Amino acid sequence: MSDKMDKTVVVQVxxxxxxxxxxxxxxxxxxxxxxxxGNVCRVGDEVRIVESRPLSREKRWVVEKxxxxxxxxxxxxxxx
Length: 80
Prior knowledge:
single chain, CATH 2.40.50.140, 4 strands
């Protein structure tokens, strides 16, 4: 999602949740700041993050693996 900080990326996690009363399936989005030691993640990459000890005030996750690289020029979700 965002790689503007040094050694930190903002990862967006989407999940589907059913509304308790009406039953409609809604998309829920949560953002996590994750540690990226080598600054190798780019906007649009799919990554796996794992929980770790607190590394800063907001950072408690570490990028474990890049699952899928973003294609050059076609970035999904930019500007949202």
